[in-house]
Amino acid sequence: MQPDARLERILATSALVIIALISLGNVVVRYVTNVSFAFTEELSVFLLVVLTFAGAAVALRRNRHVRIGLLERALPERARQPLIVFQWLSGATVLGLILWFGAKLTLQEYQWQTQSPGLGVPQWWYLVWLPVLAALMLLRLTQQTLDRLRGRLDDEP
Predict the structure, then answer these.
(1) Does 34 map to a domain?
(2) Could you tell me if residue 59 is inside a domain?
C-alpha cells in the first residue's frame, strides 16, 4: 500500500479548484462588463502557496519528490543510510527555518494588525498557513525518511 497524505491532497485539490473557479469567474465578468474583480489576484496567490506546499507534502509522503538518486545508487548499502539521514537533516533544516520565520512573521502581522491590500482582511490569515504547511511537510519528510531507512520505500518510486 502506498503511503498517503490525505489532508494535504484535499487541501491541494481544493486550492486548485478554487483558483480555477475564481479565475474563470474573473474572465467571464471582465469579458461581460470590462471590469475585473480586484480580490482574485490576492486570493489566487494565497491559494497557489497552499497548493504548492500541500502538493509538496503529498510528493514527500509518496516518495515522489524530486531528488537525485545517482549518489545513493552508487554507494554501498551501508553508506546509503547516513546519506538518507543527511538528506533528512538538510530538508528538516530548511523546513524548520520556514516554520520558524513563517511563525514569527505571522505573529508580527497579527500584532501589527496589518490588513491585506485587496480584501482588507487581516494579513495573518494568509500567513498562518506557511508555518502550518511547513510543519506538515516536515512530518511527511520524516515519515518518508523513516520508511526509506526501514527499507519500505524503493529508491525509485
Answers:
(1) yes
(2) yes
* Per-residue pLDDT at 2: 78
pLDDT, tens digit, 9 for 90 and up, residues 8-22: 999 999 999 999 999
What pairs with residue 122 in β-bridges?
115
What pLDDT score does 38 carry? Answer: 79
Q: Does the pTM of the predicted model rise above 0.85?
A: yes
Q: Which residues contact 126 (CB under 8 A, 6 or more apart)?
A: 46, 49, 116
Task: Give me the number of domains the chain comprises.
Answer: 1
Q: Is residue 21 part of a domain?
A: yes
46-100 pLDDT, tens digit each: 999 999 999 999 999 988 887 777 888 888 888 999 999 999 999 999 999 999 9
The answer to whether 82 and 121 are in contact (CB under 8 A) is no
Q: Which domain holds residue 131?
A: 6-149
**pLDDT of res. 155:** 62
Per-residue DSSP letters for 85-109? HHHHHHHHHHHHHHHHHHHHHHHHH
Query: For residues 55 and 109, is the Cβ–Cβ distance under 8 A?
Result: no
